[in-house]
Amino acid sequence: MNIKADLSIFDIIGHLIIWVVLSFVTFGIALFFFPYSFARFVINRTSVVDATTGVERKMVCDINIFSNIGHIILWMLISIVTFGLGYIFYFYRVWNYALNNSRVE
Prior knowledge:
- The protein contains 4 helices and 4 strands, in the order E-H-H-E-E-H-H-E.
- It has one domain (2-100).
- The chain starts with a strand and ends with a strand.
- Helix content is 53%, strand content 16%.
- It is globular, with a radius of gyration of 16 Å.
- A 4-stranded antiparallel sheet has the order 1-2-3-4.
- Helix 2 (34-43) runs parallel beside helix 4 and helix 3 packs antiparallel against helix 4 (85-100).
- The chain is α+β, with helices and mostly antiparallel strands.
- Pfam families: DUF6693.
- The chain crosses the membrane at residues 12-34, 72-92.
């Protein structure tokens, strides 16, 4: 099995522009939602390719940014208490959560 990501530079730039604007508008609060969006953005554009048959199966991330408000608030508090150091761990935990809630179609 091989993994193939189909990310165009225009998709990436568009995604980043949206989140930079949201970060400024919300005074940085949007940055706690960004890791969920980023993980979902990458996973939904990734497929698993069978090396022997060449069959490509798309990955789907089933997370919803707004259904994880409790998780976001918890990590927001951890990040504030640790003066931002907790955000580094938060990013990894979000990826762990996103991959555990993904499937292959």
